[in-house]
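Annex B.
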Amino acid sequence: MLQLPSFRGAKVLAGKSSLHRIVSSLSVLEVSNADFSSKIVQTVQEEWYAEEIVISSLYTIKDSVEKQCETIQYLIDLGEVGLILYYVGIIVPKIPEEVLQLAESHNFIIICMPENDISLRYNEVIYEVMEAIVLDNQTINDNFVNETLEKVSFLPEHSRSVEIMLKLLSDRLKANLVLTNTQLDIANQVMWPRNSTLDVVSLIRGYAPHYIDGRARGENNDSACFIGHQIIRQKNGEPLYLFVIKENAKLPVKTIDKIGEVVQVAVNLWGDKHNEVSEYALVKAILNDESEKMRRLAHLLHIDVAAVQMMWLVYFEDLSEEKDIREDLAEHLSKYYQTAVIQTIDYCIVVLLGNGSYKSNEIEIAEEYMETTSYLSSISEMVYAPRMRNTTDVRRMYQLVNQVRKQIHLIYHERKWFTAAEIRSMKRAVDLSVQGEEVVEEWMSVIAPVLEDPESVRTLMTFLLDAKGSFDACSQLLFVHKNTVKYRVKKISELLGYDITKNSEFYDVYLACMIYRLINS
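Purine catabolism regulatory protein: predicted structure tokens.
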């Protein structure tokens, strides 16, 4: 892409190690407020933009380094390849070092178009890049299978799934892809365009009886639609049917074969027992954003996923105790919830709860379990996430916890269970800690008055992070009298200018303490 004439004079300022990445789409971002943009994207559809690059001038946030960093982080979280930045020196005086450091820490590409050049036009880059993409997409070469699998390898592990692969292929072919069992029940369905109302079920049921036995490779009575199919084998030998439905064009047989190869590999890697009907398969479908499969399994299992309003994530180290911990959780939760799905995914017991008793306080149920379970020593962390509005919230929280899980015990030395709010604060602290010296120094200035006194630092960190603001818990952890803790906390509050015993005042101090532990761990 960088060899195109419209990029002459452009400079790569961050993410040079990612220049081998594939770009298959391009978008313009001028609504640069990350909060507002995220609402738009999440309302339309939860997607992973693994091959998209963004054009922007950051005009609406040109005066806010903090908002610029938030926007870069937002694009990183979406999976965007990078940012092409226009009119530097005219709109944004210069690209802040904090922005570049954040991008570099995530291998996120920032391309600066020639500075102080008012004659630049977006449409030149848009035209040349999209023309190159269209020309490239017209051919399915012999390396197509390897190239497609390599693209998926760049995604976070939790995003690698059969449905994500189908989405990438659908975008490449501009076609509908449907995966069914032998009874033609849909397991996965990806539409092109995403809001298409094409009745693929009727098309498949009309097509299958005549062509699925292998006598024909793919024709259709409806001249406006071409249907091709491939048989996909699962690890257990059971077949699935892949249908490729293209409107107003016919795909070559070779292309259908290559698509079948890619989907076969995806099913081998991530689709074990892809048509299995079980609670485990349902949880995997929720976490992998396989919406069609999730709805089908929920219907077959008679589980009302819309009723799920609570999630626990229970992490453990010893696989031999997994079954016992699950049974222990089931026994405890059966007293309070009518809907309880409890399944293990990669050393994490995912608990989805709904239809709870209104007589019981939900956070107290979680506290009670951690206080009474005989498996506390086997549990490394537990996260309590209330107010899950839908399965999208469930998936996002699961992904968020796994993003910060490695840092949990760097921040919280003496704790095992955490709320969703604490996890979100943790993510913010982790992001801030890698935004460069200037940002870190700004946050350290919040607690600077006590940093030269080790006793005050230890008391502050223990009180806010480990003891959750409890004088009793803090005194036990520090092995000092409760009144000693009260005296120290009062003194620290006076020095900082924040009353760290009041929730309304101590959040900045709380965040600064998390960043301190991250950079000093």
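The longest helix spans residues 253-270. Residues 38-46 have pLDDT under 50 and may be disordered. Further annotation is deferred to the next reporting cycle.
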